[in-house]
Amino acid sequence: MPERVAPVWDFILTADKLKRVTRQNFLSGGSRLENSAEHSWFLALMGLVLAEYAPTGTSLPRVVELLLVHDLVEIDAGDEYIEASAEARRRQQEREEQAAARLFHDLPVLRAAWDEFEAGETPEAQFARHLDALAPALLTWGDGGCGAQQWGRPSDGYVALKRRVLNHPQFWPLFVGWMEREGVSMAGERREVSTRLARQIQFLTACDALRLVERTTFLHDHSRAENSAEHSWHLALMALLLADEAPPGTVISRVVALLVTHDLVEIYAGDTHFDTTDANLAAQAVNEAQAAQQLFGLLPADQTAFFLSLWHEFEAQETTEARFARALDALQPMLLTWGWGGVGCTETYPDLTVERLLKLKEPRLREFPALWMLAQQVMWEAVEAATLLPGNVSKPVNNLILNN
């Protein structure tokens, strides 16, 4: 196992804690408050869908990277109240700086991304910050939002803040329309929103429902089931962290795009159990194909084709990018379930064995040696911890120990 990878394994489990950081705004529809991990996923999806509104020359892959990373400091520092006082914001900034120093000390790539987002000086950071300002407003005041029920009429201070941070020529008119619908006077600021942008916003609003799709995997602390939106964020972050473990020539930005979007069909088709039957898999494939047409059909025709191509690429597993993405998708639930300190899943799957997991996971992971080595170590350490049965296989003689 390359020594450079050792800090990454620890951080992948640390990052899981972002799923437990609660934000102020509710999901569209008001069912619950969102968390910072699924918020970061939604922003990355927005970066893909709304890429055309970035300034000319902006690196869209970098925008997505910044959005995946920018809230990781909230693991230690928590979320910031949108209308906080200047003193509260100063204290929050201090907490976030301390968090960045602790979390990113062995991961300079993440530190550089966080610093860039915070500085807000590059075109990529500025566009990322516009999306970060738009997303909660969309969920709160857009179609299906519950802003009036949860918060009442938008305050003058809130509108003034959004005017400062959402000064984007296409996004500000969206906000103006939402405010006027809530009875806020926005005299002289109303402009028509294009049909194209309206369809993109309709699609994004529909995609918010991925947060309500529960998976069979639990968070690492076993506090609750993971949802498919935060799972997709975690995978995309892993792709950035483990880019060096992909074969030479792999386009990591494509891997990230595949992972951000690969589970969207579950909004209509639901999640699939990892050990389901071939018949169920065949039926699920039909359901997911129909779901892909229904969901991506909400977009303008050119984007329908683009997002369908992403989904088909992931499913076909013919490109290196798709296979690396699938390998991460196979590894991540193992880390959450049996990774260092994991409690396993014996209550739900008492008969699950290393033998069965090897058959399920090896076809996805063997192509990527570092990932496959880690998967094997996780399984055998789980056997030693009595959270997984071995089955009719024995631990290999070769050294699988990581440098922890």
Structure description:
- By secondary structure, the chain is mainly α.
- 58% of the residues lie in helices and 4% in strands.
- The protein contains 19 helices and four strands.
- A two-stranded antiparallel sheet has the order 1-2. A two-stranded antiparallel ribbon has the order 3-4.
- Helix 2 (36-49) packs antiparallel against helix 3, helix 7 (123-141) runs parallel beside helix 10 and helix 17 runs parallel beside helix 19 (369-384).
- The chain is globular, with a radius of gyration of 22 Å.
- The N and C termini lie close together (11 Å).
In a nutshell, what does this entry contain?
This protein is mainly alpha-helical.
Poorly predicted residue ranges: 399-404
Separation of the first and last Cα atoms:
11 Å
- The percent range for helix content is 55-70%
Mind telling me the C-alpha Rg? 22 Å
Number of strands: 4
Portion in beta strands: under 5%
Q: Tell me, rounded to a whole number, the average pLDDT.
A: 93
Count of helical segments? 19
Secondary structural class: mainly alpha
- What sequence of helices (H) and strands (E) makes up the elements? HEEHHHHHHHHHHEEHHHHHHHH
Spatial sequence of strands, sheet with the most strands: 1-2
Biggest sheet architecture = 2 strands, antiparallel
